[in-house]
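#struct-help
A.M.: can someone run this one for me? Single chain, 164 residues.
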Amino acid sequence: MSTPDAWPATGPMSVRPPFTPETAARKARMAEDAWNHRDPERVSLAYTEDSWWRNRAEFLQGRPAIVAFLTRKWAQELEYRLIKEVWAFTGDRIAARFAYEWHDGSGHWYRSHGNEQWEFDARGLMRRREASINDIPIAASARLFHWPPGPRPADHPGLSDLGL
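D.P.: on it. Structure tokens below:
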């Protein structure tokens, strides 16, 4: 696996604490874009080697655990589309809210809503992530996140614009 230094200038280490409104929003969008690529190895590079996570009721630590978790997640959450929005920030921390849409292997659609608390090291890598998430079944016709696989287009509405 490559090191975080191998990221381009727009990678996770290009935005470092302390955060401003602009850099916090950029950090959240970078995270959203990375997760929408659904590449566990690449996503893991935005986190410290020993990053600590709570995701729902699951606790994990370190990049190998992050890769395994995301691999499992995206094998079950198909056609995953995510939008993140900064809720608050200070110093080396960002609170974000998010929603994502996906379907299971049976074709049942869900919208998952959640909140995350992030803490970063001086290099801009996330050392702690805590996520609380709730899943709501939706009809396919109720989907709001419509774009091709990959990052959300710049002109696609965000959470507040969608009333979420």
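A.M.: thanks! Residues 16-162 form a domain with the Nuclear Transport Factor 2; Chain: A, fold (CATH 3.10.450.50).
D.P.: also worth noting: Confidence is low (pLDDT under 50) at residues 1-9.
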